[in-house]
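User: Hi! I'm working on a homework problem where we have to compare a predicted structure to a textbook description. Could you give me the structure for the chain below?
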Amino acid sequence: MLGQMSHQPLLISYQLRFADRFHHNIEVISRTVEGPIDRSSWGQIAKRSRKLANALVALGVKPGDRVATLAWNTHRHLELYFAVSGLGAVLHTVNPRLPLDQLRYIVDHAEDSVLFFDNTFTKLAQYVASQQLEVRNFIAMTDTANLPADTHLPGLTDYESFIAPHSAEFEWPDFDENTASSLCYTSGTSGNPKGVLYSHRSTVLHSYAAAMVDSLGICASDVTLPVVPMFHVNAWGVPYAAAMVGSKLVLPGPGMDGKSLLELIDGEQVTSLLGVPTVWMGLLTHMKSVGYTMKGVRKVTIGGAACPPSMIEAFEKIHGARVIHAWGMTETSPIGTVNTMLPKHAALDDAGRMAVKRKQGRPLYGVDLRLVDDDHNAVPHDGETSGHLQIRGPWVASSYFRRDRDEAHDGEWFYTGDIATIDADSYMQITDRSKDVIKSGGEWISSIDLENAAMGCPGVAQAAAIGVAHPKWQERPLLIVVRHPDSDVTAAEVQAYLTAKLAKWWLPDAVEFIEALPLGATGKVLKRQLRERFAGYVLPT
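Assistant: Happy to help. Predicted structure tokens:
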């Protein structure tokens, strides 16, 4: 027996229609690439998205076609999020920080037909045009006055001229909710990047998850500033969830440095921040240098990499903002787990609460986690036993786009590549990437725990730990440190600090100082480059 409820497909266009109808005047603020602040609303975003959809159809874009973007977090990029997917095409957000060979590969592999680009990325657009790929039209995401000159890009026009002649009336089509909506390629992997093809259904369900109180809690009372780029995992799904709940949305454009972010936070009275640790490191450093303490920010969501306890303490104790520690991947849309506290934790002291908050959190409804050993056997969720983390759920990828071989799946379970523990309360903690764990004498040393401990040492700005070959123990940890600009902290001081924080056999055998850590396209430390740089390193005996 089937239920007798009306059927409405879960489509991204319904989110925009809802925002237009019920949150018409809620602001959408955007710092443009040209500099000025654009002040818009969900009603205006919806109107311009309909004009954009008509322009795309007139250009010949059909359902299933891939439309690429090389763009920052702006109102125009937001309009593309809804217009492209809404008409049944696929939005392909290209990461402009990728190496050129990978950029070429993914545009070719996706068979993109149109490329929208911010002026910042004009040279990348010219590179794409020179590669004789499928891209036939190039649209600069600006107005006529700022259209790049002498680019020799085929079919080049500016965004405002592109949409201006078209009607603001567009009937968003209905179709199967499992239709592909957007495409994002992984970065930092061995070999070529792999495409993750999201559906309307997975995106809308993920939006509901992001709005849950025990998740990111995106809501109408928030002024939301997503610093995570819109070219990275759909900005963690924030644009969709914000439209669905009617949150005021503040988009930082290319200004993701501490000074630029603080201007927006203060000027727009932002209450909710979302981004990766490297971004927050810059913001915290800037606020300290100018003596600024945040007053209105209620929550800071930190994901993309493990959050150092020192960063949690800085936001919570100095700036009064609750830190939400979260974990996910491109393949998980990305929210997999979120760290929100249970009632039982209210009785804990500061140290006890920090022990919980440093974990990546509990799975959301719809997400299932498990740990397995090297032989695929399940390991206990006791908070002590480490295993390979696997995940499944309605917004978790079942395979990669146009890829026959798939070693990342174990039946319906996806191998995350992380080593983790899960405790009795279902809090998951990443202890390492499987390729980064340091194997010493048959035991595993978590490079993440070692790095987080080092980040608390006065004078240490950033730290990374890698395994170095050892004749007796197989591997031993080498700690690589970036000092604060005004610091002269020594290796001996770092070692002394760590002695009180870690088990003796976890202590690094050596500490090396460098000017900057190599960062990947999404702000993560490139351990592979560090291992190459320190290959053959001889540890002290």
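For your comparison, note the following. The longest helix spans residues 42-59. Residues 519 and 526 are 5 Å apart (CA to CA). Good luck with the assignment!
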